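#onboarding

Welcome to the new folks! Below is a worked example of what a typical request in this channel looks like: someone posts a single protein sequence, and someone else replies with the predicted structure as tokens. Don't worry about understanding the tokens yet, we'll cover that in week two.

Example request:
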Amino acid sequence: QVELVESGGGLVQAGDSLRLSCAASRRTVGSYTMGWFRQAPGKEREFVAAITWTSTYYADSVKGRFTISRDNAKNTVYLQMNNLNPEDTAVYYCAFSRQTMTVPSDINSWGKGTLVTVSS
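Example response:
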């Protein structure tokens, strides 16, 4: 079991940037996938971005604006979010999977989430 703790959420204005962090309780290198999902009020949880040992992939809605990265020495994954807009407002959840991740059912461990609010 991997415990995940997110940080970095907050209230920003449209066009601003924000960086989320996710610290894992143990090493998650190798064939594992780390990533982020988000859930807006009244909507289902949706995939945002993921990173494996060799690649990254993104939801179309954030491609070109968000960047996912990892620091293996710190067991930490980051999500750099640029040019934020009100549609990005959601609770952002860090996620761990022993396979790829594109839907919530792929996930083996979740963080508790961090709220990102983007005002217009």
